[in-house]
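Honest question from a wet-lab person: if I give you the sequences of every part of a complex, can you actually get the arrangement of the whole thing, not just the pieces? Trying it with mine:
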Amino acid sequence: MDNQAFGKKPLQILEKIRENLERLNEKMEVMIELQKHTKKDTQMIPEAPLDVMTLLSMPDHLRKTAMTVCRLGRATAEEIAQQTHRARAVESAYLNQLVIMGYLKKERKGRKAYFFVDREGQG
Amino acid sequence: MALGKIIAVHSYKGGTGKTLLSLNLAATLVKRGKKVCLLDLDFRAPSLSIILKIEKAECWLNDYLNGTCGIEKVLINLSERFQNKGEFFVGLANPATEAIRDISAKDRKWEMRALGRLLALRNSLLNDRGFDYLIFDTSPGLQYSSINAIVGADLVIVATTLDRSDVDGTRRMLGELYELFEKKTEIVLNKALLDVSSKSKREEVQSKIQEMYNAPLLGVIPCFCDVLRAEGNIIFVHEKPEHPLTKILDEIADKIETMP
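Yes, you can. This is the full assembly:
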């Protein structure tokens, strides 16, 4: 019994370190993706309508994310990632970029962030 | 979970047979016992109300997209008229000139909301009311209402003829429209003056068309003088069960029903 208790602590610490590393990794992926795609011409447009012509003119990687939000109505990055089969962190980066561009709205509920198209609120 | 399917019937040019195809496809599926809803999204040139001889509706699809009424007020039950195993509902576009003018002048924000309302039909009609198929008849070319319909659909059927400008435009849409939205797309070649009398001839035509468009071929409809002669007064699959067009529509419905 004592032996087991003794062995548990280092394991827990290692597990914690692993978790932290994973989280760090996710954040780095987001930063890399954002750097890849955020060009200088991406201006802040508050509340731009996400209509089909806008969807058509978007770069492919963002269109896929935006289309999935349109279909689901309201979703977390995790739910979007399940549909697009891309990493959650990548979707999170794209979603936040779409928010910056004014096409999506973001709302926090507890620990989760939901993304949606604000169809009724505009104009 | 066996949910229904949304089909958009679209084309590059006008007069390719979208309405003929969507109406007869809907009627074929109804004959098979399905619950089908056919929606006329061709707001620029509404035709379903005229073909079905319905002059007044409580609400039009225009009103639904405007947000002034619910979809249940738009749908007209034609099941009795068709007297088949299934159920047949239609939603009509308002054919009045001022309604066409009104919808042509909408802005991007309105179109975005209209897209939301169109997407909501999956829930309200397929999930809640148990429809097996929603069929969108659309305007030709790159129009807001048509692209909205395409975005909302699971399957896009593209009606095309062998007219050169139509072939060229259809090919461009395949690469620059449907593919960008990652839509499953199938071609229906209409008014074909090709010999499809034997199986080997049919296969030859099929591979030729598939190669031409680089897209799957759902069916070939030869040029039928009977269809022209009917002047839009006959729903062939309903009134002419032995007509070759009825048989072709049956084959098309077979393929659609077995699609994943």
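Two things worth pointing out. The first helix of chain B runs from residue 18 to 31. The mean pLDDT of chain B is 92.
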